[in-house]
Design goal:
The complex is a heterodimer.
Chain A (H helix, E strand, L loop, with lengths): L7 H18 L19 E2 L9 E2 L9 E6 L4 H15 L4 E6 L3 H11 L5 E5 L3 H6 L6 E5 L5 E6 L7 H10 L2
Parallel strand pairs in A: 3-4, 4-5
Antiparallel strand pairs in A: 1-2, 3-6, 6-7
Chain B lengths: L1 H33 L9 H24 L6 H6 L6 H6 L5 H22 L5 H25 L23 H29 L5 H32 L10 H26 L3 H24 L12 H25 L14 H31 L8 H21 L14 H21 L4 H16 L14 H26 L1 E8 L3 E4 L2 E12 L3 E12 L2 E5 L2 E5 L4 E5 L1 E5 L2 E12 L2 E10 L3 H43 L1
Antiparallel strand pairs in B: 1-10, 2-3, 3-4, 4-5, 4-6, 6-7, 8-9, 9-10
Chain lengths: 175, 653
Amino acid sequence: MKKLWLIIPLMLFALFLGVAAYQLTQPRDTLVRSTMIGKPLPAFDLPGATDDAPRVASGMFADGQPRLLNVWATWCVPCIAEAPQLEELAKRGVPIVGIAIRDEPEAIAQFLEQYGDPYAAIARDDIAEVQLALGSSGVPETFVIDGKGIIRHQHIGDIRESDVDEIYAKWEAAK
Amino acid sequence: MIAEIGLAALWLAAGLCALQFIAGVLGVREAGADGAVHPVSALARPAAVVQGLLLLVAFACLLRVFAVTDLSVALVADNSHVDKPFIYRLSAAWGNHEGSMLLWVTILGLSGGLVALFERRMDDRFMKAVLAAQAFIALGFLAFLLFSSNPFARLNPPADFGAGLNPLLQDIGLAFHPPTLYLGYVGLSVAFSFVVAGLVTRQAGPELARVMRPWVLAAWVALTLGIAAGSYWAYYELGWGGWWFWDPVENASLMPWLAATALLHSVSVLAARDALRTWTIMLGVVAFSMSMVGTFLVRSGILTSVHAFAVDPERGAFILGLLAIYVGGGFGLFALRAGALAEGKRFALVSREGALVFNNVMLSGILAVVLLGTLYPLAAEALGTRVSIGPPYYNPVSAIFAVPMLLVLLVGPLLRWKRDSLSRIAVPLAIVGALLAASVTVLVLFTDAGVLPVLGLAIAVALALASWLPLRGRKLKRVPLALWGSMLAHFGVAVSLAGMASETAFSIERLVAVEAGESVAVGPYQVTLQEVDPVAGPNWTALEGRLAITGGGVDTVLRPQARYFTDPPQSTSESALLTRWDGQFYAILGDAAGEGRWQLRLWWKPFVTLIWYGALLIALGGLLSIFGHLRASARSRRIREEVARRRAEKALL
């Protein structure tokens, strides 16, 4: 057929329609997943929760002990909601390192007094540089770091009661 | 009560729309069979006019409920707030999905009414086909409004305060950006209706091009203004310092513009020379498709975008359905009928037509680049990978097409129709070529700008002269208005291009953390942070930085703000701009950086304003062309009537 090219626009449009229709029926996943999973923790060296507390560095993670790395902030409401779940994990023997994003020592002290302190150590990330390096797009987020300092798992959003067992299992698996 | 009147007007308009469609179809069919016209078909024109008026009533009702903040209307409660300034209460009427769709339909109805009232150049059967196509489009959008996006739905019990409008949208730029874009989309839908009528009645000659041209031009002017307004809004409101981000939603407005620009040039060829028949028809369908695809991408939220202010997947499915019917129908009709269209006139490679075909092919190339870049992430996601496509793809790849197109634009308007030789225009060619070469040399020697900005600036300089060369050898008083329009628009392209290239090549950016009293140098200016104070507005509170700007003949104070809105809670950066004749100084107040320091983001952007001034010139050129063509067409009609009258007199004698 000589006039075959006349149906090319129609075919292209049909292709677009097919893809668009397929995509519309797919559930939307709006979470931004970190591409750092499976990779070593980015190097950092941050001040502690207060000015006289010891500094927290990425080097301390590679000591054979798996840990949770909790990215949080005192100004973040869901972080208050997940505080009891972090307490529960700490009670089961999981060491948790916190990174407080854009925070103040006084605010941190008050938060810990009010909602409990599950943390083995807390670092202050004033300009969210470590958060960005981790591939975390918001607070709270929790990472499982294995004993060699490799990021094994990312939990986006606050830890609900139903998430505690799963995160504990991931931590166990990282041993 | 007002809301009920609005809803009733919408339903009545939908009824008239159905009548207009039936009348139009009957008009096309009956007149085709035996020449006798079905009586109902006479109703098509009046139905279109009354429908336009009813839609205007409906939109006025929506404005009214927003103006008085009637919180028993769900849409008002969701998008407005009692404390909001009056102008933003009004613009909230179309700053949301339902309201903006009603605005779309209202503009569509009004243009349908205009076509029905004033377009008398084509025969009756053709016009019936146009009105039927218009009604078919309007019917789909009215169904969409009434069944899935009723703007007048009541809320029981009424809300107490209202949720407010996204603060990014509480801006004067927003009051004009969507309506102008919709004007453009609707203008393209009218052109589409003409094309469909041309295919149905098998008329695709110069007459079709002449009736289409004002609509294509009007759509193109509106799109140009809409895109320029949107770009300026994003520039100063988002506070990122850029004027174009290749965001899917920006691309959604750029694609119809590219198609309309191509269409507008091929329509000129068809009107003047009866060439490019099939191509023009196809572009007519493509241009409307792009505006529909744009609407779909923006409204469905299928692409993640910073602009996604009003998204809903179910409505996305509805718009996709409409898209399938209209665009699928348009391309289907094209595939069936375009083969039967008589071939247009031939022309030589070196000729005005040849240059315009080159322009069309290059514009289509850019369109394909943007379309691919916008849709590729969608297709990739269907295959399970996520990609993000940005300037490193768009800028160089679209330049592959844009640079040759602009180079041909330097000489194209000088060529004669049908057949010409380059030796005839050797003198202007040499002048423009020398100017181009000199500009490139100067820029390479004295600046360290990149390849594309150098090319852009040099072409801008050459084009600024070349765009007026068609005046050569003409008597100034006898230059047609439409030619003034096209020269002005091409000059506008040069101005805009100069702004883009200069901003890219010569911008100076500083990101600093300073204490009060500290100074930094940015370009020709010395910037001192004096202090940061809290301030309050009608529905926001803010931290306001006071920046003293000195040097370069300036001694002034800028006040960028970090604003916190309460209804709904959101924070925005209000940039502070200092506009000089040779550029803009752009300041953003960032976060507190501890120890009394504040982050400041400062730019000096030489000649950045030319981008938008150029766009205004382009739009003005388009307006001049519309008036020029309408005047010329009215004059030739008067002459034809005069000739016919004299002939009739002669015959009587």
